[in-house]
Amino acid sequence: GAGVSQSPRYKVAKRGQDVALRCDPISGHVSLFWYQQALGQGPEFLTYFQNEAQLDKSGLPSDRFFAERPEGSVSTLKIQRTQQEDSAVYLCASSRVRDYEQYFGPGTRLTVT
Amino acid sequence: ELKVEQNPLFLSMQEGKNYTIYCNYSTTSDRLYWYRQDPGKSLESLFVLLSNGAVKQEGRLMASLDTKARLSTLHITAAVHDLSATYFCAVDYAGKSTFGDGTTLTVKP
User: Which of A8, A100, B26, B67 gives 20 to 30 Å between its CA and that of B89?
Assistant: First the structure.
């Protein structure tokens, strides 16, 4: 079956621009996670959804970061007024329920110039 | 705050040799994951370890979990070039996964 998909795969943004990153989880997966992975480091948790409810956003680094999952399926991570330190790979993962194995998408590589 | 430490961070080994990667974590948890990541790719799940004493094996890789020592190991047996990748452990706590910094493994002929 189809895995987790993300788009775009690559995004170059000028400092100050807004960007929107999309995640399509595996069909039927209740839980959806966003992570940020800086070069040479492990992924860091950003936020978690259970269906359409955002239950944990403790990892979002600033109020420029906003995530939504309005219908409990596709999710969008939005970054406003991008800064150079936002350059990273943004990974989305989904799982059947919260404490089960997570399946990761291919990621979106964001470069802010 | 949960801390996850892996060592070594970089490992170069010859084909046919054995080695172990270690993952220590700072807070009680009974769920630990090992992932593989190839350059420019996403994470591939290798093992999910759910209880103290759990041991799982797949091919040349074997993972174990000691929740009392807060330690997991990933043992590589008779390494082959195809195992070259970065390996991450991740520990669940308070509903979220915390990852180590990864171990970059290079297997040389």
Answer: A8
